[in-house]
Amino acid sequence: MRFRRLLALGERLVFLFLLAQFILCLPLPAHAETDGDRETMELYYEPQDLTVTSATRSPRPLSRSAENITVITAEEIEAINAHTLADVLAIVPGVQVAGNTAPGAPTLTEFAGATTRFIQILIDGVPIDNESDSYAIPGMVPVQNIERVEILKGPASSSWSSSLGGIVNVITKEPALHASFSGAASFSGGENGTRDGRGELSGTVGRLGYYLSGGNLQSNGFHPFNATENNNAYAKLRWNLSDRGSLRLTFNSMETAPQVGLITFAGFSDQFKLRILQSTLSLDYSLTDRLTFNALIKGTRFDFTEGYDDISTGERLATITNDEKTAGGAAILTWRQGLHTLTGGIDFDHGQAKNPLFNIDASNDKWGFFLNDTIAWKRLTITPAVRYDLTSKTGDFFSPSIGVTLGITDKTLLRAYTARGYNLPVLNPAYATKDTGWTVQTGFETTDIPFLWLKGTWFRNEFKERGDTVTRTLREGFEIEARTVPLYNSWLTAGYVFTDARNLETGEKLDGVARQTWDLGLHYDDRQRFRGSLIGYYRDWNTPSSWGGKYGNFIWDLNLGWRFFRSGNTEAELFATGHNLFSNNQYHDEIFKNPSRWFEGGLRIKW
Q: 246, exposed or middle or buried, with CB in 10 Å at 0-12, 13-18, 19+?
């Protein structure tokens, strides 16, 4: 009992320490601004991260984007010693990741209550969601080949088709431009047989650039029947076409074989194996100084096997297989003239799925036509967009959106956005209707407050969700994010999101939606030798007592790094992470209990 009290006292001291650091940071002088014409958000984002592509499928300044977009860079991913995309999403305010029972575990992802099947996960614009139930597993996506992750919250159907709740677009690394041979390698090990080995090679020889990566992640798990193992390999070849553009060929293989958990009330355990193979061939070409052309050919193979075993006898109770193939392409033109950046294109996908247990043997052809514009005049930006989708199995859909941004000062931006979106039904004969809905969002982003970056968003998402009957639901709330300007190489981050999620027909709250989320962080990086972060998060899941969820405390993770060697382009770093320092509970369902306190460490080398 005394030990528990000490842990509780320690947790309170950590919170008070973060709060004190936040207060102390505000009145002290920060580094002077070097350029009076600095873009509005450059105090928070590095200049190279100010351009995003996920909103319009062509580059657009973040300060001209009305959508609620969060960008996580490779450097930030490295600083938290993440294993997979699920670890990255877990630190984003307004994003809830459930089921993180071990590194690489399959997880559920929500954006302010928008469920997993409403969120499309893309790798360089190619979905990894399956056709059968619109589900993607971020826990199988490795982080070593990620250049940045763009997270757009709210319907994104006017650009990306089926994406009622939002998108996660993983932008992969490009071949190194100024070296013929460079790379990176890392290995980490931790408790319960957890180990993660990765390697990367990259360079450019003449006109040919290459990027290769691969890795293995495995763990015995932190609860019975929670072991995981992931394998991945990725290759990108780029051929430069003089100064006009480039050709890219990619190959992506991801494989995961986790044990989902011990289903004690039903007397069985659940384990599955999933392999995704993807390949793309793309062309980026400047037809004129104002007109660019992008074309993409893509193919995906999705193999899934799931087995249910009796706990007492080990007998196989049931096996589910799902075999999917998708092929398609896209063609996009982007025209820049005066105030306008006009982007239009065509998407095509042919998907096939076979699942004998659920009597699925179907195909679906999808055509999409989209057009959007970024009209930028002085401090005002207007971004209208439309998309029309036709499908052979589930009908058609029209997705409009419009956004406005207004810079009221050099450092304060106002945003407003509304969009209609949809989610395709699963290829199951029992479901034949789409999920549809609207979002309205308004917000601001500012660095006018001394030494502080602040962002706020109010949102109202009204959906019609399929099921036994169509149900009207509402998710309404607001989110606040803040970050201090670095002082003595240290800065603070904070995020709070409130979501009121209800059934509009009955007035009842939606189960399993986090009503409140908190994210706190204290960070240090001297850019030379040492870096570290103390990150805490809390999710108020609002679940029925029958689920057995526990979520009464913050989870605190400590990440440390020591760059002990640097010479030219070569550096070596020792890193370590202490997960869940106070062994608190943060899970919405007793099947997916989060691990207690555990530690891991490793070595990272770059050359």
A: middle
